[in-house]
Design a protein that fits this description.
Blueprint lengths: L4 H16 L7 E7 L10 E10 L1 E6 L6 E9 L2 E8 L8 H7 L3 E5 L20 E9 L9 E5 L4 E5 L13
Antiparallel strand pairs: 1-6, 1-9, 2-5, 2-7, 3-6, 4-5, 7-8
Length: 174
């Protein structure tokens, strides 16, 4: 026996609501960008950064800013390192340049991002993703050796869902 048209709509709407309420499943792949660094008038340039990760697979380095090097790898099983820095002063990145570079890495997370350090998920035993490290920022007075070291946390990471790195702009293809 068939259902009436309004009843079929109710069933379809109920099915849609049930599927929409599901939590994000993991693993999930993202583009990773640095954000929220205190670059300003007195300390305008990013010189380098070091970050330890946990529960994060580093799939690819998407962008390497000009005159920079970026190294990404693993210390042991599920703990990794991401390090980047300019070869010399001409490559240090100000806020606009950092935003223009866009995502630096393609990463896969095995769980949600933890804001307070490494822990394990209670539901499935998989590690929750963590990010912790430091950045070195350069003072505006180039005669000063007073570089500032600032902590990097999950708050300095922007994750954008993606399947692959974006294509390089034509200006970067040589």
């Amino acid at each position: 026996m068939g259902h009436s048209k309004p009843m079929r709509r109710v069933f379809a709407l109920a099915a849609l609501l049930l599927t929409a309420a599901k939590p994000v499943e993991h693993p999930r792949t993202y583009l990773l960008s640095l954000t929220g660094l205190p670059l300003g008038e007195h300390y305008p340039r990013l010189k380098s950064f070091e970050m330890e990760t946990y529960g994060v697979d580093i799939a690819a380095v998407c962008r390497i800013p000009e005159d920079w090097s970026i190294l990404a790898g693993y210390k042991y099983s599920i703990a990794g390192d991401i390090n980047g820095g300019a070869a010399h002063g001409a490559g240090w990145l100000n806020r606009k340049q950092l935003a223009k570079e866009g995502p630096l890495l393609l990463v896969t997370l095995h769980g949600p991002v933890e804001r307070h350090g490494p822990t394990f998920s209670k539901s499935n035993g998989l590690p929750i993703a963590t990010f912790a490290g430091k950045a070195e920022i350069e003072p505006s007075n180039e005669n000063s050796d007073d570089d500032q070291i600032i902590p990097l946390t999950a708050a300095n990471i922007r994750l954008t869902p993606a399947r692959a790195c974006p294509p390089l702009p034509a200006s970067r293809l040589r």
